[in-house]
């Protein structure tokens, strides 16, 4: 299941500190080698946020008939080559009506009232919008014929017929204001690809194809191990030098948001044996995220312990701030027990080599969150069954100048404001990557390229939304 094919050795390991782009590409390359978990069938709405394990096909033509796209009159474009023109109205079709050609069709000089969503009658090749017409009632000689069509009213006692005529002020082109049968999709055509994460549009498409149940991949289980002697659980009363474990919580929500299931393990102290036990436990999940303990401090043991477990490192730092010490790697041949990511009962113990990826995220809360978004998210999405995910920054105008140092790509907490086409962004004042309060005021990150010392107000800058 969610382990990789053992093909990642073909991707050149970098192992040192790499540029942001190189780090991201390394993750994307490895993410492209992993396999999603088992397939399960869920109710359509339960599938929200899940990744399709099957393609969704059109079960009929979309639209299933030539569908009027406007309220108005179905007509023949040739009859409206010169306007104004007067057409005889010989019927009306509401959405849901089926115009049997023998009963309702459009001949020369004729029109049929039609509503949006209704099938175009035989003979018509366009719809004139009702806004460009006026309906008039005139006496009409073809009483019997029209009465047979169920259209118009026979005036009692007289052999005259009050017929309807429409004055059309604007011409139409053939094909205008209706969608031909099958133009959106042909029966059997792929509407949603396997690997697509279901959002409201995907749910609507599956619904329109009659899929009340869909096949999705099991969510990858992502272990979270926070490290640090100073870190305590959030319901404990912290001692004077202790801080609460917020990272396991930010990560749990980010994992869920990325389509995974968070498995929060105990806090690991800065001590080799206990840290190793927790890392081994975490490596039984589909992915392991560690926070803290990856910097240069004497008690930053994460890389050492992973080294003892024969980890392969793909990078041991990225030229970014916050988050420079971020580590990405994998371990092979971790025995997979029953509590691994497999669905209960489908797998007990595994002998084939399994690659388990891990990220060592720096412990500062803003660094943890940013490095998750930049690097851990695409791996979780891949384990969840999604196709390759490229990172795209949005753009906005900078409100106030930014001064910084060169050398690192910066992701500075910022506030995106403005309205409609006028997006403005302003970096938040902050005390560095431990400043969780600044992040609470921010709604995005401004991305500052490593070669820029100063960005002027009014310049267009890149943003990472959060
Ligand atoms: P480290 O990466 O271990 O050097 O930690 C960097 C900073 O992040 C230190 O100030 C830690 O106290 C803080 N930190 C580490 N782990 C957590 C956590 N789980 N929740 C909140 N802050 C943390
Ligand atoms: Mg630490």
Provide an overview of this structure:
The protein is of the alpha+beta class and 466 residues long. Helix content is 17%, strand content 29%. The chain has eight helices and 29 strands. The chain has helices at 20-31, 143-148, 200-208, 247-257, 272-282, 302-308, 365-383, 436-441; strands at residues 39-43, 56-57, 67-68, 72-75, 85-93, 110-114, 126-129, 133-140, 153-154, 161-168, 178-179, 190-192, 213-217, 221-226, 231-232, 243-244, 261-264, 287-291, 312-315, 320-321, 327-332, 355-361, 394-398, 402-403, 409-419, 422-427, 444-448, 454-455, 460-465. Strands 4, 5, 6, 7, 8, 9 and 10 form a seven-stranded mixed beta sheet that branches. The chain has a six-stranded mixed beta sheet with strand order 17-14-18-22-21-19, sandwiched between helices. Strands 23-26-25-27-29 form a five-stranded mixed beta barrel. α4 packs parallel to α7. The chain starts with 19 loop residues before the first helix and ends with a strand. Bound molecules: adenosine monophosphate and magnesium ion. Adenosine monophosphate is lined by residues 226, 228, 230-231, 243, 245-248, 291-293, 295, 297, 362-365, 434.
């Amino acid at each position: 299941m969610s382990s990789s094919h053992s093909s990642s050795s073909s991707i050149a390991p970098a192992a040192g500190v790499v540029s942001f782009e190189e780090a991201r590409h390394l993750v994307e390359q490895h993410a492209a080698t992993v396999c999603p978990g088992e397939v399960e069938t869920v109710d359509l709405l339960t599938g929200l946020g899940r990744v399709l394990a099957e393609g969704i096909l059109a079960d009929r033509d979309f639209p299933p008939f030539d569908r009027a796209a406007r309220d108005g009159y179905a007509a023949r474009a040739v009859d409206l080559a010169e306007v104004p023109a007067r057409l005889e109205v010989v019927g009306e079709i509401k959405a849901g009506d089926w115009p049997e050609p023998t009963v309702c069709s459009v001949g020369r000089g004729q029109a049929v009232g039609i509503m949006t969503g209704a099938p175009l009658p035989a003979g018509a090749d366009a719809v004139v919008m009702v806004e460009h017409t006026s309906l008039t009632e005139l006496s009409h000689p073809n009483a019997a014929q029209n009465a047979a069509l169920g259209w118009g009213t026979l005036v009692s006692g007289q052999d005259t017929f009050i017929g309807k005529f429409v004055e059309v002020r604007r011409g139409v082109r053939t094909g205008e204001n209706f969608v031909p049968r099958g133009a959106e999709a042909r029966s059997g055509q792929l509407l949603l690809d396997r690997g697509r994460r279901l959002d409201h549009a995907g749910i609507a498409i599956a619904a329109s194809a009659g899929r009340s149940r869909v096949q999705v991949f099991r969510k990858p289980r992502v272990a979270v191990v926070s490290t640090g002697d100073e870190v305590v659980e959030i319901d404990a009363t912290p001692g004077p030098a202790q801080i609460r474990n917020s990272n396991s919580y930010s990560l749990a929500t980010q994992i869920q948001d990325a389509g995974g299931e968070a498995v929060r393990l105990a806090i690991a102290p800065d001590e080799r044996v206990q840290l190793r036990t927790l890392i081994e436990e975490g490596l039984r999940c589909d992915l392991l995220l560690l926070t803290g303990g990856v910097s240069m401090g004497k008690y930053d043991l994460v890389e050492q312990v992973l080294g003892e477990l024969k980890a392969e490192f793909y990078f041991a730092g990225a030229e970014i701030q916050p988050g420079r010490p971020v580590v990405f790697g994998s371990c092979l041949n971790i025995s997979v027990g029953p509590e691994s990511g497999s669905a209960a009962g489908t797998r007990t113990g595994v002998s084939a080599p399994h690659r388990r990826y891990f990220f060592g995220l720096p412990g500062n809360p803003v660094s943890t969150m940013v490095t998750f978004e930049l690097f851990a998210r695409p791996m979780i999405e891949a384990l969840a069954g999604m196709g390759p995910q490229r990172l795209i920054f949005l753009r906005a105008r900078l409100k106030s100048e930014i001064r910084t140092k060169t050398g690192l790509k910066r992701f500075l907490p910022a506030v995106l404001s403005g309205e409609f086409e006028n997006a403005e962004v302003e970096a938040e004042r902050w005390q560095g990557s431990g400043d969780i309060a600044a992040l609470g005021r921010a709604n995005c990150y401004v991305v500052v390229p490593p070669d820029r010392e100063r960005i002027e107000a009014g310049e267009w800058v890149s943003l990472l939304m959060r």
